[in-house]
Amino acid sequence: MSKEKSVEKTIEDYLEAMLMIKEKQGYIRSIDVAYRLGVTKPSVTYTTKRLKERGYIIMDENNYIILTEKGMAIASHTYEKHKMLTKFFIDLGVGEEIAMKDACLIEHDLSPETFEALCRHINSIEN
């Protein structure tokens, strides 16, 4: 994997994790991001600094993380892919835990064309 692709995957992972944390508990703290991603607090500090520089997040007066519109767009799209892939794998008979892990591996590398085709396929089965 190229360094640029690795950086983009990291950004997507962090923003998606932040969105999931926000949905679960209503606020995002760095320590929660570290726990969710299984990384160290210094790693989160380093990456959140980069996310702020790129305009994906801001920090409020209590040091809670807030996704900007730009960050929320990436987080939502990544999370949508994750949920759709997880559902697809479960529908194929894969266990939920493995389906979630595999979805996380694939969500970053799936082309928009393939993702759209997958969505159409799943929607045609459900309707």
Any overview of this molecule?
The protein has two domains: 3-73, Arc Repressor Mutant, subunit A (Orthogonal Bundle), CATH 1.10.10.10; 78-126, Iron dependent repressor, metal binding and dimerisation domain (Diphtheria Toxin Repressor, domain 2, Orthogonal Bundle). A hairpin with a 5-residue loop joins strand 1 (57-59) and strand 2 (65-67). Helix 1 (3-25) packs across helix 4 (69-91). It contains six helices and two strands. The protein has helices at 3-25, 30-37, 41-53, 69-91, 96-106, 112-126, and strands at residues 57-59, 65-67. It is elongated and about 45 Å long. It has a two-stranded antiparallel sheet with strand order 1-2. The longest helix has 23 residues, at 3-25. The mean pLDDT is 90. It has 127 residues and is mainly alpha-helical. Helices cover 73% and strands 5% of the residues.
Q: Quick check: average pLDDT?
A: 90
Radius of gyration, in angstroms, nearest whole number: 15 Å
Tally of helical runs: 6
Number of strands: 2
- What structural class should be given to the helix and strand makeup? mainly alpha
CATH arch. level architecture of the largest domain: Orthogonal Bundle
Distance between the termini: 38 Å
Strand order of the largest sheet: 1-2
> N-to-C SSE series?
HHHEEHHH
Per CATH, the superfamily of the largest domain is Winged helix-like DNA-binding domain superfamily/Winged helix DNA-binding domain
- DSSP helix fraction: over 70%
Report the β-strand fraction as a percent range: under 5%
Q: Which oligomerization state do the chains in this entry correspond to?
A: single chain
Q: Provide the low-confidence segments as ranges.
A: none
Largest β-sheet summary: 2 strands, antiparallel
Shape: elongated
CATH names the topology of the largest domain as Arc Repressor Mutant, subunit A
Please give the domain count.
2
| CATH class (first level) name of the largest domain | Mainly Alpha
